[in-house]
Amino acid sequence: MAQENKTEKESPSDVKALIQSDVYRKQFAMAMPKHMKPERFIRIAITAMTKNPKLAKCTQASLVSCLLDLSALGLEPDGRRAHLIPFMNNKTGEIICTLLIDYKGLVELAMNTKEVSNIHADVICEEDTFVYNLGQVEKHEIDFRRDRGKMYAVYCIITMKDGTKKCEVMTKAEVDAIRKRSKSANDGPWVTDYNEMSKKTVFRRASKWIKLSPEVREKLEKDDGQFETVPSAPGAPVIELKNDKNKKPTDQAGEVVDAEIEGPDAWKNVGDTARFGEANATKAKTLAQNITKCAEKLGKEKFMAIVGNQGVERMTEILKIEDLVKLTNELLDAVRDLE
Asked: Same structural domain for residues 123 and 198?
């Protein structure tokens, strides 16, 4: 019992020492853009763990994966543009760290594409004057001399470099439906910064008009926990999960997703992900899980039409990890269009 208590006490400092080690400092430096400094990034990560002690209790693999994702995207876990949220995995009894990028962080990533000149999003309240006509926001007036009343909708306008504008509007009910699917629906910024998360939600829907990198697109399409995180840093994860090489990946229903292609559900099975190589093992498994979830949402007819557009008759013919990423992103686009 004494040994267990000692381990628990040492755990937070062990995790902090881990991400401050030279090995991880080099990993973060390799992944992040040149304008970022790994020392500052690590210092901000340590501050986040100090403010939220539960982060130190997360599995090392999940915490490091989130930090590598952030460093590759060029964002910091500062609690303003990106958040590290711990949640309990009831199946495994482990605390898992999940990455949540808020509206300001996504806007920064979108502006980095050099295709966008301006992004504006705001909530609409009962006392505001709001006019939406033929897909365009014609007027939004706010009288700051009085209380705006309850928020009932949110919108986003993306202005491109050529002057064209793309607009999306969502009701509060639509935003709350997205929130319910989030692993962090009752924790973190969904509770403390609801309006910002609402802006993020409508921006995600509007972002289909922006040409984004696969790494950024993965974060936009990750529906706050509805889909699993795909590590965006190059190469295999630094920390391998215990028995990972021998364990078959499963979806949320507990079904093996890389089993032999057979049976009535064969149309939504990616096949054995081992064909993508050991370096892409974790990423391929996560992509396969996301594809299965998309297939269930889209239905066989829509799903097969998209797979056909990839130029393959069966998913088992996809041999390059880049092609699997491309297919996953197209499926995620289709799922979002259903919302």
From this structure: yes
Q: Are residues 142 and 94 in the same domain?
A: no
Contact, 288 vs 270, CB < 8 A? yes
Joined together, the tokens standing for residue 331 give: 């499926």
- CA–CA gap between residue 79 and residue 77 (Å, rounded): 6
79: left (phi over 0), alpha (psi -120 to 50) or beta: left
- 327 pLDDT tier (thresholds 50, 70, 90): confident
State the pLDDT at residue 264: 65
Closest by CA position to 96, among listed 58, 55, 69, 48: 58
Q: What is the pTM of this model?
A: 0.53
| Digit-coded pLDDT (tens) for 172-205 | 999 999 888 877 788 778 888 899 889 988 988 8
**Are 97 and 118 within one domain?**
no
**Domain ranges, residue 164:** 114-211
- Give dist(CA 56, CA 16) in Å, integer: 8
277, 317 Cβ separation under 8 angstroms: no
Query: For residue 67, what are the β-bridge partners?
Result: none
Q: Which residues pair with 256 in a beta bridge?
A: 250
Domain boundary among 74, 101, 128: 101
CB count, 10 Å around CB of 73? 27
Residue 88 and residue 10 share a domain: yes
CB distance 95 to 58 below 8 Å: yes
Last residue in a domain, options 78, 101, 124: 101
Please list the residues that pair with 132 across neighbouring strands. Answer: 137
Nearest by Cα to 58 from 25, 24, 85? 85
Does residue 329 form part of some domain? yes
Work out how many domains the chain is built from and give that number.
3
Could you tell me the two tokens for 108?
């920064």
The string of pLDDT tens digits covering residues 243-277 is 333 333 443 333 333 333 445 667 777 877 777 87
- Tell whether 10 and 92 lie within a shared domain: yes
